[in-house]
Specification:
The protein has about 140 residues and is mostly helical. It contains four helices and no strands. It is about 70% helix and about 0% strand. Helix 3 packs antiparallel against helix 4. It is found in: Apical cell membrane; Myelin membrane.
Length: about 140
């Protein structure tokens, strides 16, 4: 949802006149589509059929790359917002897209942290851990 809130306001402006917004659109739409594909994969439990794929490692790499590219997209979008724009509604939409790009960047960063913990096996809790007696 956050990725959608990044590219939808920009798509409603004259973004094609500014190269910076083309980069933001590419990053946000690409990662939005791939995230929806991963979501559908896990929703339909297709990862169980492709057990040879290291899903936790793949998700960690995906989230880390998304975080880094969203950092560039956020900085680009925030730097390109001009309050003296000749169209006030473009300014509001671009400022909102910049705000949601920041939130999306943070969300992918948090997902990277949890993906790393799952990849390293540190994400177990009392319900999933097994107690062994090493006496």
């Amino acid at each position: 949802v956050l990725g959608l809130l990044v590219w939808a306001p920009i798509a409603d402006t004259t973004y094609y006149l500014h190269a910076a917004y083309s980069w933001v659109m590419f990053v946000s739409i690409f990662f939005w589509i791939v995230t929806v594909l991963f979501f559908m994969t896990y929703l339909l439990q297709l990862q169980l059929k492709f057990y040879m794929v290291p899903w936790s490692l793949m998700l960690m790499i995906f989230n880390a790359v998304a975080t880094v590219l969203y950092i560039t997209a956020f900085v680009t979008c925030a730097a390109a917002v001009q309050p003296t724009s000749w169209r006030q509604w473009d300014y509001n939409r671009r400022a909102a897209a910049s705000f949601f790009a920041c939130l999306t960047m943070v969300a992918y960063g948090v997902s990277t942290f949890f993906s790393f913990r799952a990849w390293k096996g540190l994400g177990s809790n009392a319900a999933t851990s097994q107690v062994t007696d090493h006496a």
